[in-house]
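Sat 14:20. Reprocessing the chain from the morning session after the first attempt stalled halfway. Input below, unchanged.
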Amino acid sequence: MTSAEDLEESNCCPCELSPCQCHLILLQMSAITENIQELGLFQNIIEDVLFGIARAKIKERVSTTCASSYSKTLINDLTEWLNNDLIGWLDKVTVNLDGSEILSKERLMYYLYDSFVKLRLDEILPMIIDYPDSRPSFEDLHSVLPQTNLRKQLIVTIKQVYESRILHPGVTTTDILTAYIQSIQAFRVLDPSCVILEIVTEPVKLYLRSREDTVRCIVANLIDESCEVLSDELTKGTSDQDTVDEDNIGEGWQHWLPDPVDANPDVSSKARRSTDIINMLVNIYGTKELFIKEYWNLLADRLLSNLSYTTMWEIRYFELLKIRFGETDLLKCEVMLKDVTDSKRLNTWINEELQKTNNELPFQMNALMLSAQYWPTFREEPIELPAEMKDALTSYTKAYETTKVNRTLKWQPHIGQVEVDIEMDSGNTVTFKTSPVNVAIIMAFQEQGMYTVEELAEKLQTSASVIRRRISYWQSHGVLKEISHDVYELNKDSSTSMIHEPIEEEVLESATASSEQQKEQEFQVMWSYINGMLTNSDSLPLERIHSMLKIFANAECTVHELERFLSKKIREGKVVCAAGVYKLAS
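Finished this time. Tokens:
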């Protein structure tokens, strides 16, 4: 029997009355319990009621203790509360005359774990976003999930959360990649076998594959210091995780566990566990060539926008990528970095020679001398530079030709940056750092104070669309104003609209052509091969043309891309197709 004194020591008393009446109530309940037990009816009458109360208390405790709290482990506190408080109180009420338990401790513990996992399922996305701060919560899930039957529900819930909250056009590719990277880290804690990670991230990979800017975002994050996760992964090199070798278990065999039943049998446990974050990002497309090509383009932009010849950080990332992807695939990038280093030395020498020969340039000029065949295709934007700038380029070219015999320079006048001082009628002088095209436009207004867009386009030998896009720069800074449609003049009222401090450096546009433009140029080169094939063979099927291009032109296009290109040639009337066979139009 339970005494009144023992009942008063219970820690589950919520009574706010003074004096407390709980011990009297418990005495009465104890007497009732004893009578019911003597009749053998306790389990049929009271057990379900008490278990319902216990479930409600467990659910309330889990909710108040764990909701929106991810930064520390909580499952031990919950287990301690269940053992000391809840089960301690129930034991005082439900102990049988023979000392056996009516409510099973294992049953209550299962419901505690079940309630905890279901709460975390409702909060799974905030937990992923908060990682690594939420790591303790994933560790708790790792410890209790095997004690429940909620593994399948967890996988279904995570997939639904991805589809409804992340995988839609309203979320940027960068944000999706961030969530994907954090998911990889979090689910490795949740399930070290990485089976859950493999299953739930498959829809994310498929969706990222459908976005055009995925590769560029991955590469940009890979060489961005602010993305600490990828930067750390790159610094570590190839994966060095502590994984169990299935072929040579050796020490620690007692800790080995088989993969879950929902694991993909085509992927070995070792391969699944050892794949690092960077490899998982590369495996979105299944090939590293796309990433190397995108890094090549991105490196070109970064080097061309770096006007100080500083390549320390670029060399650091290049060496790390070379360890991971191999030296051969990054040969072009190595030449590009060497071009910048050589340009710094040559530029210094040329400027010194121009001073010695009394042929000093009217303004300081620095140039990057690039090995054209190793750099991406540059964006085309024809422009006729002012005479002062053209003369400076000519003098620089002659000095280069005296240094590098049988070599010359082919200038890209629209790429680069010019620092120019503009003096207004009011006497104010403002310094701008902008592109050569913008400088060519504003220098045209030295000759006359007003131009139409068409007149400027004719004078600078470029298109009207380029003028409209570029002239907005000067209009936004108050140097020019539009007096009527497509008619601009110098803004003489600079006191109110002109900024009297040095203008911040303009963000440089990408100097390289877009991937679509590069692909179009590659196909134009391949067209000569295709034309020769169809001339010599009369007619060829699509697969044969594709295989021959890979052999003779080192083509990197897919069959689908080649088919689209040939369809374009059919519309142009240069090729005809009948029964899947292509031949030249007669």
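The longest helix spans residues 331-356.
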